[in-house]
Amino acid sequence: MATPRNLTVTSDHLAAVLEGRAYLLCDGGMGTLVQAAGLHTVHEVPDLLNLTHPQDIAALQRRYVEAGADCITTNTFSANRLKLKDTDATVAQVYAAAAAIAREAGAPLVAGDIGPTGALLEPLGPLTFDEAYDIFAEQARAAEAAGCDVVLIETMADLLEAKAAVLAAVEHTSLPVFATMTFGEDGRTFLGTTPAIAATTLSALGAQVVGLNCSLGPVELAPLVDQLAPAARSLVMAQPNAGLPRLQDGETVFDVGPEEFAQAMEALLDAGATVVGGCCGTTPEHIRALRTVLDGRSAPSPAVGAPMASSASSEAPMAASSSSAEAPAREEAAAAAPTAPSSTPASKRSVPNPRYEAVFAVASAQRLVLLPQGQAAVAVIGERINPTGKKKLKAALQAGDVDYLVAEAAAQQRARADILDVNVGVPGLDEPALLTQVVRTLQATVPLPLQLDSSDPAAIEAAARIYAGRPLVNSVNGKAANLAAVLPVVARYGCTVVGLTLDENGIPPTAEERLAIARRIVEAAANYGIPREDVAIDCLVMAAATNQAEVREILRAVTLVKQELGVRTVLGVSNVSFGLPQRPLVNATFLAAAFGAGLDMPILNPLNARYRDTVDTFRVLNGQDEGCRYFLDTYAGVADPYDGPASGTAEASAGAAAPGESARASGAAGAATDTAFNRQGGAGAPSAATCPIPVTAAFADVPESVAALAAYALEGRGAPLAEATAQLLETHDGLAIINDIFVPVLDVVGLKYDDGTFFLPQLMASAEAVKAGFDVIRAQQEVADAAATSPDHAAPSPSNRAIVVATVEGDIHDIGKNIVKMLLENYGFPVIDLGRDVTPQAIVDAAGEAGARLIGLSALMTTTVGAMERTIQLVHQQLPQAAVMVGGAVITQEFADQIGADFYAKDAAESTRIATQFFGEEA
After folding, report:
1. Out of 263-267, 426-430, 728-732, 862-866, which region has the weakest mean confidence (pLDDT)?
2. H/E run at residue 25
3. What H or E segment, with its residue span, contains residue 135?
4. Model confidence at 905: pLDDT above 80
5. Count of domains forming the chain
6. 157 and 199 housed in the same domain
7. What is the C-alpha R_g of the chain?
8. Are both 314 and 440 inside the same structural domain?
9. Is there a single domain that holds both residue 784 and residue 805?
10. Is 402 in the same domain as 482?
11. Are the C-beta atoms of residues 560 and 512 closer than 8 Å to each other?
12. By CB atoms within 10 Å of each CB, which of 11, 104, 617, 639 scores lowest?
């Protein structure tokens, strides 16, 4: 839960909305009206219309007020310092003018609009988190200073950017914060975030309202709202498009009319949305029809026990809804509102969303781990990224070799870890800087959520700040000083947290004493606004060899914590076996006993087959593996590793691991286990048997090298891939490496992206790693000779494989285009980037000068798709040898066909396939 703050609520209606007792109707697609009025061509940045054409903007917004909208969004979607840098206007000036215009239009409530920066955040782009945070903070302050009632952050596609915006608004204003993200037809953002992940993360950061907008129509958004609502400890918002755009007589039109739109919105309201409106294509008529629907519904019911929020008015709260005929009354009420709004502590109000399900939730930008209250479920925390007792990992950290950590992370993911513990605490190193670097790198290569493991609150804060998602913090303990240092960080960044049952007197020996410390931690967390469902307790495992009596107390403490406090539990399993032989046997047995006592999240080495067997078996017994499907698929027909003479050999007793590290099953019995039950691959060196691509005859003498190159590519590890490529070049042809290794592995990467195993960050990381191999081949071989017979992904000269990319005229959004550019370059294609808002003739001229035969066009705004059609027509007229591929949030295959495009790229990965096929067919 976010850090408590005093919330300014400017009207009784807004207070009722925030308590979940009333609907809020927002306006529709302002850009649609701007285009229809012919104003979209006046400025490159439409927000400048607030300064040059205020009456025109007021007239358009007044139409939404007259249609019954309760809240008008300021015309400031692009009013950030990056997009205004080439103008004479300041952020403050634009917001001041925009808010005044909305008030002049009669808006009962005004939402200060904040859109994406237009730049990609690290590691995909050049913008740092703190730079984005500063940009959004400036906008949020400007919105509040201009007199806005709400800060609305909308149309976000990058969860990390949305996090920066929400955090900035929460920390720099006292206004309610609304935040929406935009999702594709697959139910994810282009970076792989689901509605549930977005809701979990953004509501924990302190947004009062979270939801979805743009991209899709109301029918398509309904199931996404249904996914989002149970994960949101806030209100739910939905602003769909009026369907998808198409061209009609040269104009962009939408197929979903006002009545159809309003009827379809019923499903979104039923799913839990209480703040609604429209996005692209939704006219005042759409909003008027939606007003009628809201007026015909009963007021929404808030969560049980949600107290009243104070408001600016002393009058009784407004009715839950009012008819469009009552718009003048709403205007009068807004005009009569007191000038000095009151504040109420946001943290003192219960969750107003009745659909919220209290769960222990940890999330990356692409993966969500949920442990629902009252349900039996376990999640494995992989322990291997921790230097305690690991000499190689410690040396890698000291050498700055983050690739080593990526390999460990990838191996644990293959072994089905659910969460990865990340600890980089090595004396003499800058832990805050290093933990931040490692977290950023791991998030770009592995989709699993992370546990930030450090005894340094500064390191925890540095990493939690730039984490894309909702991390688990390990840990806080019962010491007063530690509680005061760590819990504010957990609250500020909306994390979940592990509490250790130790205090100023050390680790107590009895279960009751551990329970007392756990209770103190839970109560202290609540004082910081961190609810019980966000806390897990680690009852601290002691070595059986020296604390045998305490083992029973540890298990009893786990049971007491679950029964008395109702929180989730964590244990570092491997500590129990320190000093004993057959450590995997001891650990696995203790793990089973701990599951029976109520353990939810064991911290263990997932690469050990014995531990995986225990986890998989318990998931059958607790019902988590529904229908025993995974167990049957994995174990049916597999020989019992303990059924034979191998068990009990002397070798099996050798080689106990160091403290904090579970040893792999060793000796004959361990080898049998690893051979029989080694699902998903282990952490050992890649082998030809597990290589994801076939070993061709050209590399029959070095199958392990081929497997290593493929593994490095899939893990996104550029440095070792480049080194392995250089070694292989000593005995093999560079063209064969490209043809027989790089191309097939990139095909595997594409398949993983298609089936949802990889997301855009992993796709980019793999392509970047392969590019490192391309670069080695370029440097060591004659490129000219290779280019003549180059396969699909070879690195030819720009003259015959250059690709021109541009965002079309009138459109200033270029995030999608920038991603396509980076991915094409990583696949070996020379890219000429013309930027954004590029005229058709400029695109044709650049392509002609470069001899480019493939052109990529991007558009995000529905108002600019006509420019895309004009560009395609001009290309086909003046460069008949060139082909055009198109993409963007508003583009579909049907639309691409309609405007005469040669290819439609539904995402960045598809653009590489198109380019590969296009140039491959030409060869």
Report:
1. 862-866
2. strand 24-25
3. helix 129-145
4. yes
5. 4
6. yes
7. 29
8. no
9. no
10. yes
11. yes
12. 639
Residue 187 sits at the vertex; the CA angle it makes with 183 and 191, to the nearest 5 degrees, is 60
Residue 26: strand pairing partners: 71
Residues 16, 210: Cα–Cα separation, whole Å: 17
Q: Give the residue with greater pLDDT, 54 vs 822.
A: 54
Of 577, 594, 619, the one marking the end of a domain is 619
Q: Which of 280, 273, 327, 290 is nearest to 28 (CA)?
A: 280
Whether 724 and 853 map to the same domain: the answer is no
Single residue among 743, 761, 788 that ends a domain in this structure: 788
- In CATH, what number is assigned to the domain containing residue 402? 3.20.20.20
Provide mean pLDDT across the span 100-113: 97
> Residue 647: what pLDDT?
45
Counting residues of the chain whose pLDDT is more than 70, the rounded percentage is 85
Residue 644: the pLDDT is: 61
| Domain assignment present for 673 | no
Average pLDDT over residues 237-256: 82
CA–CA gap between residue 549 and residue 286 (Å, rounded)? 70
CA distances from 67 to 286, 288, 323, 548 (A): 9, 5, 10, 74
Burial of 173 (0-12, 13-18, 19+ CB in 10 A): buried
Centroid of chain to Cα 84: 28
Q: What is d(CA 481, CA 265) in angstroms, rounded to the nearest whole number?
A: 51
- 904: tokens are 């439609």
CATH code for position 714: 1.10.1240.10
DSSP reduced 3-state for 536: strand
Residue 389 located in a structural domain: yes
pTM score of the predicted model: 0.84
Q: Is residue 675 part of a domain?
A: no
Looking at the fold, whether 159 and 27 belong to one and the same domain comes out as yes
CATH number at residue 228: 3.20.20.330
Give the count of beta carbons closer than 10 Å to the beta carbon of residue 700. Answer: 10
Structure confidence at residue 894 (pLDDT)? 80
For the residues 135-163, what does the mean pLDDT come to?
97
Considering the domain boundaries, does residue 783 fall inside one?
Answer: yes
Which residue pairs, CB below 8 angstroms and at least 24 apart, start in 892-899?
892/244, 894/246, 895/244, 895/245, 895/246, 895/247, 895/865, 898/246, 898/247, 899/247, 899/865, 899/868, 899/869, 899/872
* Angle, in degrees to the nearest 10, between helices 402-414 and 391-399: 140
Residues 510 and 542 sit within 8 Å (Cβ to Cβ)? no
pLDDT score at 335 = 39
**3-state DSSP assignment of residue 542:** coil
Q: Are residues 239 and 182 in the same domain?
A: yes
Tokens of 668: 């004959």
Are 842 and 806 part of one and the same domain? Answer: yes
- The mean pLDDT value for 413-417 works out to 95
| Mean pLDDT over the full length of the chain | 86
3-state secondary structure at position 225: helix
Q: Could you tell me which residues are beta bridge partners of residue 601? A: 570
List the domain range (segments joined by +) for residue 749.
688-788
Span 427-434, average pLDDT: 95
Q: Quick: pLDDT tens for 295-348.
A: 999 999 887 655 445 444 333 333 333 333 333 333 333 333 333 444 444 443
**In angstroms, how far is the first alpha carbon of the chain from the final one?**
57
**CATH number for the domain that contains residue 875:** 3.40.50.280
Structure tokens at 632: 């049957």
Q: What is d(CA 687, CA 177) in angstroms, rounded to the nearest whole number? A: 52
Per residue in 14-70, pLDDT (tens digit) is 999 999 999 999 999 998 898 888 887 788 789 999 999 999 999 999 999 999 999
